[in-house]
Write a structure and sequence with these properties.
Family: Belongs to the Nudix hydrolase family.
Number of helices: 2
Order of helices and strands: EEEHEEEHEE
Strand content: 35-45%
Distance between the termini: 24 Å
Keywords: Hydrolase, Magnesium, Metal-binding
Shape: globular
Organism: Parnassius mnemosyne (clouded apollo)
Helix content: 10-25%
Cofactor: Mg(2+)
Structural class: mainly beta
Radius of gyration: 15 Å
Bound molecules: ligand 6U4, sodium ion
EC number: 3.6.1.56
Largest sheet: 8 strands, mixed
Length: 158
């Protein structure tokens, strides 16, 4: 049995670009990723997604403007915790991406995603996101660099 912890991950889109953040500390340090974190007790998953986006990039977004685009589950060899990550996107937001204690935000062209400096799973599921397909992926890691096995499927609805 796994102890599930729910996380959010949000991707802001504008024209043919996507906003990523370079994580400055903690889990996923020095990797480019979407913005997100743990869901707290007193909030919904979408409220957490909006809060983490604001805390990490200074952008503001409404829960009603979020699209639920994917679901990712991560397990790690020898660890009974499952990271259950709810993935969102939005092209409606306010503010200017600004560096915070946790992240350095930067716009990337969608055909120039820095996969070499991202979680190894990202290159496997980003194509679904970039093609507008809903996805469900499960990844089992050994350490934080090696995927031992995985499955990804396209979903009809979330
Ligand atoms: P604190 O303790 O406040 O720094 P918090 O911000 O709540 O933590 P954090 O940053 O540890 O949580 O959350 C991890 C973030 O990384 C979430 O947005 C989910 C995302 N994430 C985790 N594993 C990932 C993976 N393999 N691939 C990926 N994103 C991942 O693309
Ligand atoms: Na975070
Ligand atoms: Na956070």
């Amino acid at each position: 049995m796994f102890l599930k912890k729910i996380f959010t991950l949000i991707f802001i889109r504008q024209d043919n670009q996507i906003l990523l953040g370079l994580k400055k500390r903690g889990f996923g340090q020095n990797k480019w990723n979407g913005f997100g974190g743990k869901v707290e007790l007193n909030e919904s998953v979408m409220e957490a997604a909006v809060r983490e986006l604001r805390e990490e990039s200074c952008l503001m977004c409404k829960t009603t403007d979020l699209k639920n685009i994917g679901h990712l589950e991560f397990t790690f060899e020898g660890d009974s915790t499952m990271m259950d990550v709810r993935v969102f996107s939005s092209s409606i937001f306010e503010g200017t991406p600004t560096e915070t204690e946790e992240m350095i935000p930067k716009w990337f062209d969608c055909d120039k995603i820095p996969f070499h400096a991202m979680w190894p799973d990202d290159s496997l599921w980003f194509p679904y996101m970039l093609q507008g397909k809903l996805f469900y992926g499960r990844f089992h890691y050994q350490g934080f660099d090696k995927i031992l096995n995985y499955t990804i499927e396209e979903l009809e609805s979330m």
